[in-house]
Amino acid sequence: MFADAIGDPAAFALIAASAGTSFFTAAFGIGGGVLLLAIMGLILPTHALIPVHGVVQIGSNAGRMAIMIRQVRRSVLLPFLAGSVIGAVAGGSIAIQLPPAWMKIGLGLFILISVWRPTASALAPHSLFLGGAVSSFLTMFFGATGPFVATLVKALHLNRLEHVATHSACMTAQHGIKVAAFGLLGFAYAPWLPLILAMIASGFVGTILGRQLLDRLKDHQFHNLLRIILTLLALRLIHEGWRLL
């Protein structure tokens, strides 16, 4: 019904996971994409994991962006998008995958440093351009670089609604570029389309529910929770990378 390669029970599990992880991201700003990737990694074939996850994340982030469009900081998008195009082209042109252990450790350390440094000045356009390039390069191999992008957005000192909305807009653009790159490289999305559409629909429901919780949080509560979540995700990345060495 949804995907012949995995069967309906597994597909229903992924649809439910999409709703739950979208709720988490809408409420707390980050974490759902990485968690969904981990769940999908247990079920989907390796070759389909990152492309299918990318399309689902376009729907999830676009839904958040749509219901929070007034809070998006549009000035962030152009330099980030320009960098993302270059990063995706560079990542897609590399035939040999980078060592995953060092990639995960490096990404985790970057997040920890960015989150816990004593002061965080606002980012200049060239920093957003570089951040877009690096994160899009990494997403071609690693898949979920939401925590990396969240550290860039966090340095803009936005309120909780602007943070979630702007982060969602950046991730929509980045996943869109990645999905297009995999399509050009020959990945066939059509057999996965029913599953993708169902996961996007359930993710939108999760987003609406998560937005209601976000509205109840205060800015300082949100940013404290965001720091904790980013730290836990960074430590998880470092641990996974260490195990691969």
Q: Helical percent range? A: over 70%
User: What value does the average pLDDT take?
Assistant: 82
How much strand?
Answer: under 5%
Uncertain ranges: none
Count all strands and give the number: 0
Walkthrough of the structure:
The chain is mostly helical. Helix 1 runs antiparallel to helix 2. It contains 10 helices and no strands. The protein has one domain.
Summary keywords:
245 residues, mainly alpha, 10 helices, 78% helix
Quick description:
The chain is about 80% helix and about 0% strand. The chain is mainly alpha-helical. The protein has one domain.
What is the element layout, followed by pairings?
Blueprint: H1 8-28, H2 32-41, H3 46-67, H4 74-92, H5 100-116, H6 125-142, H7 146-154, H8 160-184, H9 193-216, H10 219-244
Helix pairs in contact: 1-2, 1-9, 2-3, 3-8, 3-9, 4-6, 4-8, 5-7, 5-10, 6-8, 7-8
